[in-house]
């Protein structure tokens, strides 16, 4: 039942989510945000036992918080350096341009809901879809062929990153690959934190706030 509900909410998000950033109609944006926000809360509720277990993991292993800080800092520094050295000045992917345009909309309602979607709905739903749904199951499959935890983590993170990247950049340009390299840190953190979905969601939220 849990997997079915998560699958339905995930498909709904993937199909409807972009409407928030594409539409200029305040009513459409508002309705879409409300539905997505409700679906994200329902998804969290369906995963409540997993999230409570994640909290217990942090209490038992406080070093997870140190890993969180280190990985977020590394993501910021490495992404900043790679973007500065390898991308044209002020480069922004086409997908990000659409998001930015809604965040800079003269309509206050659209601007506010786009911002809330970026820091709340997107991190929750994308972490559930790509980390909990894709990466976790990939790691389970890969672990049946190898006893190497490091290999399992790296391979599942790399494959998930590729899928994550395709979702954000259908154009598959090299510049976009460099621009979205930060997505790999989401995947690596999830694997290195022993599949801590709660911290991964917060990691994603923190990045989107930067």
Automatic annotation (TrEMBL):
InterPro entries: Rce1/LyrA-like_dom. It holds the Pfam family Rce1-like. Belongs to the UPF0177 family. The chain crosses the membrane at residues 28-47, 67-88, 108-129, 150-167, 179-203. GO terms for biological process: CAAX-box protein maturation. Keywords: Membrane, Transmembrane, Transmembrane helix. Residues 112-210 form the CAAX prenyl protease 2/Lysostaphin resistance protein A-like domain. One of its GO terms (molecular function) is endopeptidase activity. This is CAAX prenyl protease 2/Lysostaphin resistance protein A-like domain-containing protein. It comes from the Bacteria.
């Amino acid at each position: 039942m849990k997997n079915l509900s998560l699958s339905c909410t995930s498909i709904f998000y993937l199909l409807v989510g972009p409407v928030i950033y594409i539409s200029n109609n305040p009513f459409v944006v508002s309705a879409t945000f409300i539905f997505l926000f409700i679906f994200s809360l329902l998804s969290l509720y369906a995963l409540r036992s997993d999230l409570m277990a994640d909290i217990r993991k942090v209490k038992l292993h406080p070093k997870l918080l140190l890993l969180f800080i280190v990985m977020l800092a590394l993501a910021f520094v490495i992404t900043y350096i790679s973007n500065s050295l390898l991308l044209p000045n002020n480069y922004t992917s086409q997908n990000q341009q659409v998001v930015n345009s809604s965040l800079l909309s003269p309509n206050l309602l659209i601007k506010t809901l786009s911002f809330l979607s970026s820091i709340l709905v997107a991190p929750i739903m994308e972490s559930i879809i790509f980390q909990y749904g894709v990466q976790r199951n990939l790691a389970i499959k890969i672990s049946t062929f190898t006893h190497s935890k490091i290999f399992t983590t790296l391979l599942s993170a790399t494959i998930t990153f590729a899928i994550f990247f395709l979702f954000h950049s259908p154009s598959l340009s090299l510049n976009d690959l460099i621009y979205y390299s930060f997505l790999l840190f989401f995947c690596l953190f999830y694997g290195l934190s022993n599949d801590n979905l709660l911290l991964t969601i917060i990691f994603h939220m923190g990045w989107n706030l930067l």
